[in-house]
User: What shape does this take?
Amino acid sequence: MRYCSNCGAPVSLKIPPGDNLPRHVCERCQSIHYQNPKMVVGCIPEWGDEILLCRRAIDPRYGLWTLPAGFMENGETTVEAAARETREEANAAVDIDALYTLFNLPHINQVYLIFRGRLLNLDYAPGTESLEVKMFREADIPWDTLAFSVVARTLRHFFEDRRAGEMSFHLGDIKSSAANRDG
Amino acid sequence: MRYCSNCGAPVSLKIPPGDNLPRHVCERCQSIHYQNPKMVVGCIPEWGDEILLCRRAIDPRYGLWTLPAGFMENGETTVEAAARETREEANAAVDIDALYTLFNLPHINQVYLIFRGRLLNLDYAPGTESLEVKMFREADIPWDTLAFSVVARTLRHFFEDRRAGEMSFHLGDIKSSAANRDG
Assistant: This one.
């Protein structure tokens, strides 16, 4: 951020009175521009013992497999965001169930929220951001070509929990992009 | 948003190619400025059968009681944000436990995440954003002067769960500001 989105004048980084972190503050109109983490929301679309994955048609991680997920929009709820992303990326209809994982990615200012989802039918097809959409049994998950470690960790929890017969919420941190292949 | 934060030129609202929502797009440098919901993160600080509340020294809801909570910052995790807000608003040290409630407030583009927290000691004191910080038993909770309905709903779940002997995660939506007194 170099210019004030309110008046167009240059901003400078300084700690406003009563604050304790540097913010972008406008030299002219004194607006303070806060920057905060974004939520990436999606789901694990289930059908029997299979789950749906999408192969990315966009960067980062073009060509790799992922769960339907994307940036939450203003004006929607997390459940609505998870269903919308599944519709947009896989043309698939889901009922969203419980929140399943929350992963903090502080190095890129993101929080991932992945829900469980029940596919309503098998009428899916790639959306504009997907090359391919496919159902996978656990044995066929393409572990080596998953797009993000947040997806790999969510799926590992999912299959472990399913084998143990009890699904429970998981919270974790993914702190280094180099070690974890997160974009 | 009226000006581009990258180059200072005017922005206009339009749907970028491949998108389906209007965004602020720069006429000169073509930067697309996305706006997304923010997370408000906090905790229920517990000590035996008491919990800590803060009386707000700032607007909105000056003078009303709330749980320590505030906007999550870039570069931190949700657990770190909950502990930081408790330190800033109540000068209190907590160990953060499980995520307890998630409330969507789509009319103001916020998602509240409230954790359970264990106070490490009773050395608390009002921070700059609090007039007063105090421990409450259930019978003494100031239900009529709570600042936000997200706080009231979180506390109702908390005491009901505690009475039932089982704490579980709750997810809900608070959709109307008028009906619910959310700021």
